Amino acid sequence: MHTDLVAALDIGGTKIAGALVDGRGTILVRAQCATPAQEDGDTVMGAVEEVLGRLARSPLWERATALGIGSAGPVDASAGTVSPVNVPGWRDYPLVERARAAAGGLPVELIGDGVAITAAEHWQGAARGHDDALCMVVSTGVGGGLVLGGRLHPGPTGNAGHIGHISVDLDGDACPCGARGCVERIASGPNIARRAVEMGWRPGPDGDTSAAAVAAAARAGDPVALASFELAARALAAGIAATATLVEIDIAVIGGGVAKAGEVLFAPLRRALRDYATLSFVRDLEVVPARMGTDAGLVGAAAAALARQADTAAAVS
User: Fold this and answer.
1) According to a count of CB atoms within 10 Å of the terminal CB, is the N or C end of the chain lower?
2) CB neighbours (10 Å) of residue 13?
3) What fold characterizes domain 129-290?
4) DSSP designation for 93
5) pTM over 0.85
6) Cα separation, 258 vs 244, whole angstroms
7) What is the pLDDT of residue 291?
8) Same fold, 5-113+294-316 and 129-290
């Protein structure tokens, strides 16, 4: 696998990152541009084509055998389309077809961004060596992905493991997805911050009301800030325990901006998990911080492309 080289894209509402990645997961060439998220769909695609064009100018490009794409979702890998919540110009947008054309006909593997991060953490990060894992991203939203039986499990459309929209509070707040009491509605960064303000937390003189500011206040012992993180931790624990009970994972990896709060999040999360993960086969579930950092989306998209190639090669032989 070490001679393999694939192209990778990590498409989000803020930036479109691209890379050429080898079979060991090393990024050899990079390109990036801002996502024109509020423009029409073809303008956004133009930015994707610009990133691919920059990669194609590298002499290594001719060795690339596939293109892996991790995109903000929802994605539909079976249809080759994406409808990212934060890119309104893309609704059922035929990304796979357009990206294949822009990449000179390379085979394209599309997965959601949560699944991409899961692939990266399993290949090289905190879930390495675990055959059954849940990886989560807790930031502006809450996403995730599953590794089952030692293999990435994206599901038919590429969205399996989307833990942010498990309901953990049956009579909870309405979530923009249409359900109530979703993990994301309680545990995402903006919701941690919103709830802290509603509960009476007041920001410092700089007026910063972000989740990071709430985390700093919690670290300093502010009881309201701590209470908001406690609620987020309980929601995450309930969602993780439900997932573990359903599919028998033995590790949950948590990344994203909210995870940077550290023990302000992880200490109450581990406590709450003991309340929810009570059956014998989930009691030893570990919860750990992600390790892959900002390159996770790119490395994971590459991992998915390499895995698909390996499957195709096995099927042919």
Assistant:
1) C
2) 16
3) Nucleotidyltransferase; domain 5 (3.30.420)
4) B
5) yes
6) 22
7) 96
8) yes
For the beta carbon of residue 175, count every other beta carbon within 10 angstroms: 19
DSSP 8-state assignment for residue 137: E
User: Which of 3, 49, 55 lies closest to 24, judged by CA?
Assistant: 3
User: pLDDT-based confidence at 3, cuts 50/70/90?
Assistant: low
Within 24-113, strands assigned E span 27-34, 67-71, 75-76, 81-82, 108-112
Model pLDDT for residues 222-269, shown as the tens digit of each residue: 999 999 999 999 999 999 999 999 999 999 999 999 999 999 999 999
Structure confidence at residue 2 (pLDDT): 44
**Structure token pair of residue 171:** 């009579």
**Surface-to-core class of residue 252, CB atoms within 10 Å of its CB (0-12 exposed, 13-18 middle, 19+ buried):** buried
Domain ranges of the chain: 5-113+294-316, 129-290
Q: Are 54 and 31 in contact (CB under 8 A)?
A: yes
